[in-house]
Amino acid sequence: xxxxxxxxxxxxxxxxxxxxxxxxxxxxxxxxxxxxxxxxxxxxxxxxxxxxxxxxxxxxxxxxxxxxxxxxxxxxxxxxxxxxxxxxxxxxxxxxxxxxxxxxxxxxxxxxxxxxxxxxxxxxxxxxxxxxxxxxxxxxxxxxxxxxxxxxxxxxxxxxxxxxxxxxxxxxxxxxxxxxxxxxxxxxxxxxxxxxxxxxxxxxxxxxxxxxxxxxxxxxxxxxxxxxxxxxxxxxxxxxxxxxxxxxxxxxxxxxxxxxxxxxxxxxxxxxxxxxxxxxxxxxxxxxxxxxxxxxxxxxxxxxxxxxxxxxxxxxxxxxxxx
Length: 323
Ligand code: ADP
Ligand code: TRP
Hints:
Elements: E1 2-9, H1 16-31, E2 35-42, H2 43-46, H3 53-69, E3 78-81, H4 87-96, H5 101-105, H6 108-116, H7 122-136, E4 142-144, H8 150-167, E5 176-178, H9 208-216, H10 235-243, H11 246-258, H12 263-277, H13 279-290, H14 292-321
Parallel strand pairs: 1-2, 2-3, 4-5
Helix pairs in contact: 3-13, 4-7, 4-14, 7-8, 9-12, 10-12
The site of tryptophan (TRP) has 13 residues, from strand 1 and helix 7.
């Protein structure tokens, strides 16, 4: 049996990139027989960049609602808020003391973030240690993540190794990253990687009118309506091809090549495709956002299951360290 674990920061509402690149593949993995999944909302990590508590609460709910809308089975698996299981922060401290300073200083994601952000706090620096705690607390075997997380996973293994060396036995399980190389980076409306931080994302849960406005902003070239268009370079086409059925994609391709088909048409088709494909998740999402008390019940039940596992690991660790 493999224990799968992953987390998503509550630093924004999940966008199409998060859904196609992380949430759906993780849910697929969770359905494989013999797998047991531990998925959590990394709200402590979000504090490194988001200080507003009201917003955090809203994002936590939106992330929870997204996992549930796409059918994550929380009765068979474990689903919780990181901040509610205090063992994460306790283990974070222990692991801090097993983490070489230069390892953190050389982390590429820290370097990237510290160049981009106006405020560089210590939490941003020790971010990978808390991530290691998230993973090692639950003896997780497989961690599905995006390519950008590869180095963080190597650090988790390294930290676990150092701890085990001290303990003289394999107290902590070495996790393995599962990076699906086939998964492409979903482009945002400006053609760059879709990301919360670039404000180029598509929130598929927006009401139809607002969603339409966002899709209208997708960058395109100025080829006149009558002329044929290069679908290979077009962002609307790329997004459509990720969502639509192969026959529909071929049809759009032919429309581009024929001419007399404008980007406005393509964007309308993309909108229709999103509304049809995500009809059920959109309805469920709205339902959960209106019944947040149901989300709370689900997260609370998950929290209890998570805590039971976390406490067992923490007891072993305290023993090794003489606390
Ligand atoms: P963001 O860049 O919006 O802040 P996160 O870093 O919080 O997104 O990513 C959460 C998860 O979603 C990660 O596993 C990441 O790999 C995945 N993800 C984010 N953006 C994309 C994208 N544009 N294409 C594919 N996967 C993505
Ligand atoms: N750092 C991850 C990201 O930005 C989120 C995360 C926090 C995580 N803790 C984790 C992912 C543990 C996997 C396992 O996407």
